[in-house]
Amino acid sequence: MKKNRLLLLLVMVSFFSCKKGIDTPAPTSPEQMYFPTNNAEWETKSISSLGWKQSAIEDLKKFLAEKNSKSFMILINGRIVLEEYFNGHTKDATWQWNSAGKTLVSATTSIAQQENLLNINNSAAQYLGSGWTSEPTEKENLITVKHLLTMTSGLDESSELVVKSKLTYVADAGTRWAYANVFQKLMDVVSAASKQTYESYFNAKIKNKIGMDGFWDDGLIFKIYNSNTRSMAKFGLLALNNGEWNKEQIINKSFFSESIKTSQNINPSYGYLWWLNGKSTYMVPGSQNVFQGVLVSSAPSDMYAAMGASDQRIYVIPSKNMVVVRMGNASDSSNPSFTVSGFDNALWQKINAVIN
Predict the structure, then answer these.
(1) What keywords would UniProt list here (predicted)?
(2) What is the spatial distance between Cα 340 and Cα 331, in angstroms, rounded to a whole number?
(3) Domain that holds residue 305
(4) pTM to 2 decimal places
(5) For residue 193, is it within any domain?
């Protein structure tokens, strides 16, 4: 009898608890991804709402200023958490992406393929014409568009100039990874395939779609993209969302997925002009050495990055729905051209002190 009374009492307590709304609350749904529009103020998210360490922010900002930074941004789910400018740089000022802009070329090549204008598995000569290198024809014909996307053309990388006389044979395409400026021939591939200038195609398919500012400048060696910091962050947000922007799939999702995976078996830390963290080995520009370990040991293992000389950076971290952007002069003035540097590890140590 006592057991029955106790059971009845428990049932009644449960019933009235539910009626009063004191039952266990439903789990909070994930925050929706935000995409800024051209004419609207960019939404923000406070550091305190994320549980980050406010006390570590000043140390991060001091480090960035000391390392010749011009701007720095962190996005979470597309919202600005941190946006800082240094040394007189402003929100509207433009700066060069350097080789971080290679990822823009990768994305544009992808779109040309999804529009059936080209196929990355075709010989580059199909779009550039025979004799675009100084190689024998049979060697030149081995070079596909994909080899240009993956730094495996086999062409000599010792010269920064991309002219026919400098595009000479070192190895068969696909057998050697070497960081080289020959990637810019992809712009000519896209231009020939689309029957318009590369810049006009890029503007229509990416820049105008996501509301970037900026322009391609004929630099001393190759075309370099210049934009404000927020435009760089917008492209990072497009990458975080696998080529999708506000429910529009701008870059083919499967192609973008390929772009951020190991693209060849020589340098696992390289995709289609994207640098990849978390792999067992990596190579760096200007060397044929293979280094053991991950590219940036202090950064999240799932990070992929657009990296340019003088430490221009877009870091994309899917596990944290995070995009990090840094623009500026070289952190180490004695080593301005090195794409992958110790700066990345040092910066991520400062970021980790804030977010962990």
Answers:
(1) Hydrolase, Signal
(2) 12
(3) 48-79+94-355
(4) 0.91
(5) yes
Task: Give the Å distances, CA to CA, from 91 to 50, 82, 109, 331.
Answer: 24, 13, 29, 20
- DSSP state string for 40-93: SPPPB--TGGGT--GGGHHHHHHHHHHTTEEEEEEEETTEEEEEEE-TT--TT-
* Residue 31 domain flag: no
CATH number, domain with residue 293: 3.40.710.10
Give domain status of residue 129, yes or no.
yes
Domain count, the chain: 1
Query: What is the token pair recorded at 288?
Result: 């044929």
In sign, the C-alpha dihedral spanning 43, 48, 49, 53 is: positive
> Per residue in 130-179, pLDDT tens?
999 999 999 999 999 999 999 999 999 999 999 999 999 999 999 999 99
Return the H-helix or E-strand segment holding 207. Answer: none
pLDDT digits (tens, 9 = 90+) for 283-340: 999 999 999 999 999 999 999 999 999 999 999 999 999 999 999 999 998 777 677 8
Is residue 125 in a domain?
Answer: yes
**223 φ/ψ angles, rounded to the nearest 5 degrees:** -65, 135
